[in-house]
Amino acid sequence: MNQSFNIDLPEGFVKPESLDDMGKFIERLFCDNSKAYAFLQSALQYENKSKFGPSSISNTTFSIEHFDEHTLKGRMRVNYDMQLTFGCEDFTKDHRNQHSYYEFGIDLQKNTIHFDGDVIEERSTADEF
Asked: Mean pLDDT, consecutive 10-residue segments, the chain of 129 residues?
């Protein structure tokens, strides 16, 4: 299952006209403590839930892999560190240099940007037999 979420475009949004413009917009959109960043953190935590359990996300950086200024669609890579806490053992484990990819599309009429994470491969109990 992939993670999807919509973010309202900020007031005064200016349509990006290049890959560089889109990169700057994404950096501003996902600044620490923003509503957009909270959505992204939640998506990343859910994406990693089946692999590791409870986590926190830090040191997030973004790179735009592709952006079409005509369709306003593209793909970005999110790099991050993840800290796992194992409550029973009171132990924290760092997983550095994690990454995820998200397809995105700006809808000017709805004044939103939509993000779709890559489909996550989940193990089945049938794989064990």
From this structure: 88 94 96 92 85 79 97 97 73 83 97 89 51
0.90 exceeded by the pTM? no
Burial 54-86 (b: 16+ CB within 10 A, else e): ebebeebebebeebeeeebebbbebebebebee
How far is residue 24's CA from residue 22's CA, in Å, rounded to a whole number? 5
14-32 in b/e burial notation, b at 16+ Cβ within 10 A?
A: eebeebeebbebbeebbee
Asked if 36 and 7 touch (Cβ cutoff 8 Å), the reply is yes
Cα–Cα distance between 10 and 5 in angstroms, integer? 16
For the record, the structure tokens of 52 come out as 């590791």
List the Cα angle 40/45/50 in 5-degree steps: 145
Tell me which H or E stretch contains 24: helix 19-29
